[in-house]
From TrEMBL, chain A:
Name of the protein: Vegetative protein 296
Entry's family note: Belongs to the ABC transporter superfamily. Ycf16 family.
CDD domains recorded: ABC_FeS_Assembly
InterPro entries given in the database record: AAA+_ATPase, ABC_transporter-like_ATP-bd, ABC_transporter-like_CS, FeS-cluster_ATPase_SufC, P-loop_NTPase
Provenance organism: Neobacillus rhizosphaerae
Keyword ATP-binding carried by entry: yes
Alphabetized UniProt keyword annotations: ATP-binding, Nucleotide-binding
Domain of life (superkingdom): Bacteria
PANTHER family registered for this protein in UniProt: ABC TRANSPORTER I FAMILY MEMBER 6, CHLOROPLASTIC
Automatic annotation (TrEMBL), chain B:
Top-level taxon in the UniProt lineage: Bacteria
Domain SUF system FeS cluster assembly SufBD core: 179-410
SUF system FeS cluster assembly SufBD N-terminal domain location: 27-173
Family classification: Belongs to the iron-sulfur cluster assembly SufBD family.
Protein name per UniProt: Fe-S cluster assembly protein SufD
Amino acid sequence: MAGSTLTIKDLHVEIDGKEILKGVNLEIKGGEIHAIMGPNGTGKSTLSSAIMGHPKYEVTSGNITLDGQNVLEMEVDERARAGLFLAMQYPSEINGVTNADFLRSAINSRLGEGNEISLMKFIRQMDKQMEFLEMDLDMAQRYLNEGFSGGEKKRNEILQLMMLQPKIAILDEIDSGLDIDALKVVSKGINEMRGEEFGCLVITHYQRLLNYITPDYVHVMMQGRIVKSGGPELAQRLEAEGYDWIKQELGIEDETVGQEA
Amino acid sequence: MTIETKLPFDKGFVSSFSKEMNEPAWFEEFRLKALNDLDQLPMPRPDKTKIDKWNFTQFNQHTVKSDVYPSLADLPEEVKELVDLDAKNKNLYIQRNQTPAYLALSEDLKSKGVIFTDIFTAAREHGEQLKKYFMTQAINVDEHRLTALHAALVNGGVFLYVPKNVEITEPIQAVYVHDDAEANLFNHVIVVADDNSSVTYVENYISTIETSNTLVNILTEVIANVNAKIQYGAVDTLAKGVTTYVNRRGVAGRDANIEWALGLMNEGNTISENTTNLLGDGSNGDTKTVVVGRGEQTQNFTTKVVHFGKHTTGTILNHGVVKDSATSIFNGIGKIEHGASKSDAEQTSRVLMLSEKARGDANPILLIDEDDVVAGHAASVGRVDPVQLYYLMSRGISKTEAERLVIHGFLAPVVKQLPIEGVKKQLTEVIERKVR
């Protein structure tokens, strides 16, 4: 069976009563990598938070489905168990909970009571993936994201991605604050996941990341909507020419949300 | 103004109880004087908790008779879990309600002059030593009505004395089992580490019954003489309905160290005081406390370190979780007396509230009467961060499990630092049960 399909239709999202997304349409299938690009303040991160179910974001209309199932009716943990994953821009720090305990709970939440992963098997898997991501093995026993550098947090997000093997992953500015070496490692992790069973939405400001992860589709977001879509060549043109040509083409003066043309 | 406390037990009763226990004359006199003075003394006043409606003085039974445990195999299951049954050299005292029910002290420690016995045997056989420490150095009989009431009615407890230069590596354990719903306990614990000695003492107060409308009044005196070290671990798990006043107080001599690790997990209303008086120059006091409040209970925890000596260091670390409609008040007091130069008083109290009706309060107090010192405090009262829960849940972890992780995480940094492995394990299990 081919991978899953995440479908977003006419999605409107508010935060604190202010509408940020104003009708987003997008379909991501297993085997595909989509990139959403766009300047700051255009709604990119809101889209990722709304898909995952962040408590602050309210979906006012539209729908999101995963293989036909209504995602918006699911609790956050149900969405994850259904196969969604969000690598967060600002992962939470949780004092007193070790990275290893957290990941094991996450894996076991999928396996259900009575089918828990054995400790040995878990440690083997975790060590293997940490080595792949060139992480210090001590990080397994450190408290979740606490005192991690920006780069360590991002690697840790990718570690979770690789351990949990979701059907559809959203990477929210996974490249921000990364030096070139860390960026290569993070990209290596994502490329390792590539395959028919895995769909991915990469949200970024920068073309740089897309040199390492070649997307199948590129979308540009402005004013809370996807205003332009294309292939990888679109990302290259954005890198070379910036966003002004799109704004001109569409008659947009200010691309941020709330500044309607 | 003093309010008269009509005691159910009079002079005649106290006197005949003392005689029945074959106590030395000084002990009987001590009791009778305390009983006589009691009415003149005020009740304790824990900061921010009103206790005038709490019952600390009215009860029906002073003494209940309990059977001893002929062997460890006869212990209740809950108690077996606390004890290392297979250990060869056990140093273990078990008290059943007020009855000394089991005692083991290794030959090695006996030969070194270590005394470890119930308080009544101590009064009969080591009277002079007991007299030297019984409410003379750490706690005074006339501090308030409950200290006096305690002195008059002591009906249980233990005396541990470690002679000079004796370093005990294995922990000494005491388990106070509460299995009689009529048993009121006035427990007196004395731990003395003489010069250059060291000891780890671990105690458990455990109810094996669900509820009991009784009162428990615990006074603990911990004395570390010159260059001695005492690690004191306690896990209290007294039942719902038990009203507890517990005062654990340490006195540290020159270069002495007292480290407390307390898991205060009672189900009933509790007033807990834990004070360390750093009398000697260069002494250290360290207190770590974890607390879970739940149900309807009200608890007040005062942790205090008083610096008298120069170059003394006091640290307080409290982490408390409050759920349901429970109230937990944390008062952290660092007091540096005039002349205690170069001293350092640090404290951190953090309270995590898990429900709308839960009430938590952390009051850091620094009282400093000396210029050349270092002092610091941190306090916070908060709720579980919804963004943290979102993050955990976004990995598939259910809300309940995510909350459990956050709560354990909140208490873990303190639990982890407890010096005694067995206490750590037991405490983790108790926490697990209470926060579920």
